[in-house]
Design goal:
By secondary structure, the chain is an alpha+beta fold. It contains twelve helices and nine strands. Helix 3 runs parallel beside helix 12 and helix 4 (about 105-115) crosses helix 5 (about 140-145).
Amino acid sequence: MVTDTIEDTRVFFSIKHISWSEYGFHTPILLQDANGPCPLIALVNTLLLKYEFDIQQQQESVKLAGINDLRKHLLRLETKIYLDDLLSRLGDLIVNIAETSPDCEGDAAKLLDLLPQLHTGLSVNPNLITGKFPKDDLSTVLFTSLFELNFEHGWVLDEDVTVIRELEFFDKIQDFLLTNEEEVQTKEWLDANKTQVTNAGLEKLSDSLDFNNFAIYFRNNHFNTLFKSGSGDLFLLMTDSSLKSSKNIIWQSLTTVSGKDDIFYTGDFFPILDEDLQEIENQRGEVDDSDMILVKQLQEEEDQRMAEEMHKKYQNIHTKATKKLEAQDKKSELISKSKKQQTKDSDKKKKSSCIIT
């Protein structure tokens, strides 16, 4: 008897288990294929690595406590995690944060709807003066306000360009150039810095991060995990899926604008020698094209369903919490009235006692 095999076309992310730092942390991370910017990968990887470090330093955040459940889940899965599974678990994290932090409730509801978009991209508006992003952007709310992560870029003005200094934000600068085509100086600076990083930006980036700290790093419409080591050096986590089988190539230094002098490092931050770099070229040539195509098949209807379910879940929890608070307030009000009545009755008895005497 012949049976048809139904191919599983769901979107998934490959998992790589890395050992890193002088403490020998063992952490599962998500790898990136040829599927666009994917801030989702940067968010998850940064949370996982930061969690390991915070636990060692006994600095566990209440907001990040739930990340250990995701870490254990990835360790059990070993090789890959499906997008719907990942979004569901991140949704649970956001709901838990909303329950413990009332100030985040409004943001949490918006972000639950935003989650599916994290697979295909995320709109950002870098400030070319400060190296930051607008505080009210959903990207900033998600990374910084909700998950307490640094969100940085290195595309910072390094010379006197009046328009950029006055407008600051990239979106405003773009809008200005649409109606002011004669503005040559601004265009020349943008063209000269298409890599979206400058020496001034690297300096500001280093100054803004504490030692042994993590950030989500934005550059050229890509998001990555950045780490500032105890020595002050900056490293980017290598998440290219072509390096999945490589146990040695974990980090890449971030020291130059051009990237010419940036080198690869092992998990415990030892530089990889030139003779070992052939491993990178060999592995890059072994990427399975079919996997790339599979990852690109993002199912928008499935994502929308997931978003609606997570939003509904949040609304249910929020409604229950509200009813609970209302019930507690009503109970407190009844107790207060009862105490007042008891006080009145006691006063009456005292007055009556005085009259009899």
